[in-house]
Design goal:
588 residues, alpha+beta, 3-stranded antiparallel β-sheet, 12 strands, 51% helix
């Protein structure tokens, strides 16, 4: 596939393109005639934005079809089918929501080069609405991002419309529609609501079309400090002992479950157990303390924290399509629960901060063991307490479901491929012997285990796509894309593209050991300044988990039961994954 370099020559651009390139977030009309023909470096004529194939000329009709296909749950499958229909680039408009979608790793490189110094992407508005409501700081996950929820776009119009005449009628219709959605929580109402949004977007009552963002420099300065404490390779040695301890406790817990079963095996849906494991791990690293989730009896305070995390995720999904501002005004239960959940999460951070300060007063000299990211940042004293608290809670929120679901999919795939499971087990045994049990050394000797996690994220990515609002005009697949355009890289689709991966339907961790280039093919944690801040923690957490599980248990899955993905904020299994764990000494 041809690779196109970023195209920046103002001499080749119509006047409106030159102006658009200097105003971030402003997109010029694709209907403006080209006054001077542009060429790519290969000599091919660059085609205008308006010629990108796809379904973008009738957002209302596309929205209706999207709804018929149950698009809110099948977003990943629809994107995959669109790439098969239109090729490696297509443009789409669903209601008001418009983007250019790409699939090629070479095109991904062009996209990330054009993301600018302060990359912008979509945000989870329920989370930012809570922070605005409680006047709390944004962490680096939420700073400098762009509005996502389509219903918030509708609701924002309400605040700018008069209440008399035609405008009043439109406003009433909008409110009636939203009330119906709130009452029934039925996605069948969504097309009508988004249709109104699409119509209003073309009127002068559209103040919401301007991108909202926090100060980019503030985000960047915070991110640089956090990178050194969280994502730098040097900090891994701080995290590994804490994560290793949690991994050993998880193994002990599974052995207890097997013994109690009386059958020398344990057959269960591991999703809740893995959720506890992930929360215990991330809490140990971030807060420097254990919650006790690997024990039979869970402390009421720790249980309340678990309940808050669970409730926060549960109440986030409905607010992807219903404006949190409206829910707040009418006192909806989903909003009240969401606020209660985040209050509990922030209270946990407050409690940990108080404990850390108390311990620092009692201790003299350097702490004997790593005290956790929170304590490390407090002692560093380069960020305000509120900034630290905001980023730590976001790291925790983003590091539970994502890692637990990835581990669940990995165990599922190992259950489907027993011979591969034995290969991984042999690698772990050799690494244990060569490193003499030193976990840091073991992590350097398990390339196939790391390949298995990459392969899981290829076939079962947590996110459907990576998004960026490009900061400058670019050329992709010989099409001009103006600055300010939302461009999405389809992770799920790319992982299944035979042009990118040989036999993509097969689970082959060994493909990541070969010498061929993996250039922009492994993007499960994102890329560049906006890549996952908790990447180092998550990778070590999952690798250590697999080491312990492979050393102790054989994993089997139900026969003749295949599991697919469904979209609910992240990609999840569409049915429970039932696995059987057998101790190695009796597994045969």
């Amino acid at each position: 596939m041809a690779r196109w370099n970023v195209w920046r020559s103002p001499a080749m651009l119509p006047l409106c393109w030159i102006e658009a390139g200097t105003a971030s977030g402003v997109r010029c009309s694709s209907s403006v005639p080209v006054v001077r023909q542009a060429y790519s470096e290969s000599g091919s004529i660059v085609r205008p934005f308006s010629e990108i194939p796809g379904l973008w000329k009738n957002g209302v009709a596309n929205l209706y079809n999207f709804w018929k296909l149950d698009g809110f749950r099948n977003l990943h499958r629809i994107m995959l089918q669109n790439f098969k229909t239109f090729g490696p680039i297509y443009r789409e408009k669903i209601g008001y929501y418009e983007s250019v979608n790409i699939i090629s790793p070479e095109d991904a490189a062009i996209l990330f080069k054009a993301e600018g110094h302060y990359p912008k992407r979509l945000k989870v508005e329920a989370w930012t609405s809570y922070r605005d409501y409680r006047n709390r700081k944004y962490g680096v996950l939420l700073k400098y991002v762009t509005l996502f929820s389509p219903f918030t776009r509708i609701y924002s119009v309400c605040q700018y419309c008069d209440t008399d005449g035609t405008k009043g009628f439109i406003l009433s219709a909008i409110r009636l529609c939203i009330v119906i959605v709130l009452f029934y929580l039925d996605t069948a109402c969504l097309p009508f609501c988004l249709t109104i949004s699409s119509v209003l977007r073309r009127t002068r009552f559209s103040p919401y079309t301007q991108s909202f963002h926090r100060n980019g420099e503030d985000w960047r300065s915070n991110r640089v400090i956090l990178n050194k404490e969280v994502i730098s390779p040097k900090v891994l040695e701080n995290f590994v002992p804490l994560l290793d301890e949690v991994g050993e406790d998880f193994v002990a817990r599974v052995h207890k479950k097997i013994k109690r079963s009386g059958q020398n095996k344990w057959t269960t849906d591991l999703s809740q157990e893995l959720f506890k494991y992930a929360l215990e791990s991330v809490s140990s690293v971030l807060y420097g303390e254990r919650l006790g989730l690997m024990l039979d009896y869970i402390d009421p305070e720790a249980q309340h924290f678990i309940d808050c995390i669970t409730l926060m995720f549960k109440t986030t999904s409905p607010m992807l399509y219903i404006p949190p501002g409206l829910l707040r005004q009418i006192g909806a239960k989903v909003w009240r629960d969401h606020v209660e959940a985040w209050d509990g999460i922030f209270n946990q951070a407050d409690r940990c901060i108080h404990n850390i300060y108390r311990q620092l007063r009692q201790e003299t000299g350097t702490p004997k063991k790593y005290p956790g990211v929170l304590a490390s940042l407090l002692m560093l004293d380069k960020l305000s307490i509120e900034d630290i608290k905001a980023s730590i809670t976001e790291l925790m929120a983003g590091g539970v479901d994502t890692t637990s679901i990835t581990l669940l999919w990995t165990l599922y795939e190992l259950g489907r491929h027993p011979s591969l499971q034995e290969e991984l087990r042999a690698e772990v045994a050799a690494a244990r012997a060569e490193s003499q049990g030193d976990m840091m050394e073991m992590l350097k000797r398990i390339p196939l285990v790391k390949g298995a996690l990459k392969e899981t994220l290829r076939l079962h990515p947590v996110a459907v796509s990576l998004q960026r609002y490009i900061a400058e005009d670019i050329i992709i697949q010989n099409y001009h894309i103006p600055a300010g355009t939302l461009v999405q890289l389809g992770l799920y689709a790319m992982g299944r593209d035979p042009k990118v991966f040989f036999r993509p339907e097969q689970y082959q961790p060994s493909r990541w050991l070969r010498t061929e280039t993996h250039y922009f093919r492994s993007l499960g944690f994102g890329f560049g300044p906006r890549q996952c801040l908790g990447r180092r923690i998550a990778e070590a957490e999952m690798q250590i988990f697999l080491i312990h599980m492979l050393e102790n248990f054989r994993v089997e899955k139900q026969r003749h039961v295949e599991v697919q993905s469904t979209f609910e904020l992240i990609l999840l299994p569409d049915k429970p994954i039932i696995l059987t764990l057998k101790p190695l000494d009796t597994a045969r």
